């Protein structure tokens, strides 16, 4: 039982001691999130405007040219 406890504590110490590179403050926080959301909203607005202008320029009608309707199986 004590070897299990020693192994657990050793694993805990190794896991808790992992230190990564420092994170710059401009990559963390609420300001960054708000800035990303504004950029995303601006991009979505541009895409909507492009889709609306493209939809207005397309001719009205069917997506595909279909053959004329004919009765099938009648004599």
Short description, anyone?
The protein is mainly alpha-helical and 75 residues long. The protein has helices at 2-16, 30-57.
Strand content: under 5%
User: Main sheet?
Assistant: none
In angstroms, what separates the terminal alpha carbons? 90 Å
Class by alpha and beta content: mainly alpha
- Outline, from the CA principal axes? elongated
Describe this structure in words.
The termini are far apart. The longest helix is centred in the middle third of the chain and has 28 residues, at 30-57. The radius of gyration is 31 Å and the shape is elongated. The mean pLDDT is 77. Helices cover 57% and strands 0% of the residues. It has a domain at 28-53. It is mainly alpha-helical and 75 residues long.
Which terms summarize this structure?
75 residues, mainly alpha, 2 helices
Topology:
Layout: H1 2-16, H2 30-57
């Amino acid at each position: 039982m004590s070897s299990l406890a020693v192994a657990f504590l050793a694993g805990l110490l190794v896991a808790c001691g992992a230190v990564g590179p420092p994170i710059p403050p401009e990559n963390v926080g609420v300001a960054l999130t708000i800035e990303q959301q504004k950029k995303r909203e601006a991009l979505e607005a541009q895409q909507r405007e492009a889709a609306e202008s493209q939809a207005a320029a397309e001719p009205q009608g069917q997506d595909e040219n279909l053959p004329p309707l004919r009765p099938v199986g009648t004599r």
